[in-house]
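#help-structures
NK: newbie question, is this the right format to request a structure? protein is UUP1 family membrane protein
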Amino acid sequence: MSRLPFYLLVGALMIAGIALSVHRHVQFEVPWTPGEQRQVWEIEAQVNLTAQGGPVMVDMALPSHQQGYRVLTENTASPGYGLSFLEDERGRRAQWSIRQAAGSQQLYYSVQLLVAPDARPPESRRPALQEDIVWERPYDTAATQVIERAWQRSASPFTFARELIRDFSDDRQGENSRLLLNQFDRASLLVRLLNDAGVHARAVSGLMLEDGRRRQSLSTWVQVFDDDRWSLFNPVTGEQGRPDNLLMWEDSGQAVLEVQGGTNSNISFSMIQHNQPAAAAVRNQLANDTLINFSIHSLPLEEQALFQTILLIPIGALVVVLLRVLIGIKTSGTFMPVLIALAFIQTTLMTGLIGFLLIVAVGLVIRSYLSRLNLLLVARVSAVIITVIAIISLFSVLSYRFGLNAGLTITFFPMIILSWTIERMSILWEEEGPKEVLIQGGGSLLTAVLAYLAMNNPWVRHITFNFLGVQMILMSLILLLGNYTGYRLLELRRFKPVTED
């Protein structure tokens, strides 16, 4: 029978697991190793206004995912106000409303932003040109001369914008430039001149991020388009390009803050930068699962903690398969060592080993007495279960009385599995002798210890919990190992006399 379908299945599982894991690392920046730190900016916007005693509505622009930054969490503080988050052609905005308010009002909005160098900006639509731009005298003549002068020294929309801004700088500022600046705001004037020359542009607002700064305000930048490409220009210096520490707060050319029913409105910003574990930094975006971004993080924390242990079981199963199929270690029960290893994780290794040996030793002594009673199998195993429970209870009480609190964790041992282990070892002792009991018991204990060391590794725990594609990789490896039909390592001892001859 052809093995091709089998190898295709194994290959598909391996490729799918690797692809899902790499996608999760690249797209959502989930780290490969535990303990990695991520830089996070926490920014608070404070809106102040004076309400006039009637209805008040406050509309404020909000930042979104952009180049270099990704929004993690958002919070607001606005007692008595209704709040809605809106998203339309103007971008993301917060809208507060209240039926009646008077006097000084403060509204707060805070956001956590993850520094993500690989994050890409959302698609920015080119704004329409302003139509019917009319300049009053004598500003029309000045605007025409400024545009013509910059146009002659440029070859593209970007170079034209750069030359135009430089004409308004202190060292190159002429009479026409000074006349226009006395009448118009610099950023809006530049956008108007660019539009008049047929160049698509708009004024956008950004926040320069500096650690520990308070009461900061937004700065205005000019966004210039050249077909599908765009670039930012500093309206004062003419420098082209987006600074690394610039956060675009409003990028659609709209007002940052609009207030109805209030006066003297203003907005100020405070910011602080700190580092936090990468897993915590990306947890919010991991909770928003899709078909590809499937993770445990969308579950409640209690279930997450449960699955953090459950997802380690395939690692223990892989260790058992390796030791039994390739090395040939005998164990008492196929996957009993995995369950014992899980108990070791709860009890710590040394406490678990001592507790396991004590329970099994005492259980074997009691089981030897039960064998003389010639009981039926079901009754005998039930008696062993009750005996194991009694032994665990006794050891827990004694350890507590002697102040050995670590002994209390012995209750994490799987009682049914321990009972069947004692039953199997007792039968093995009667049929094969104590040597075989030591071989299988020692093999089970060695396998459990190795499985514990693999499962309790911080890197393994991190990978299995954050990358579910690893489960497919483990499945493919186990299937490959299950296809092995050669000699086991311990079986090669039979050929030792041949090598000596």
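mod (FA): yep, format's fine, and the tokens are attached above. The CA atoms of residues 2 and 199 lie 66 Å apart.
NK: thank you!
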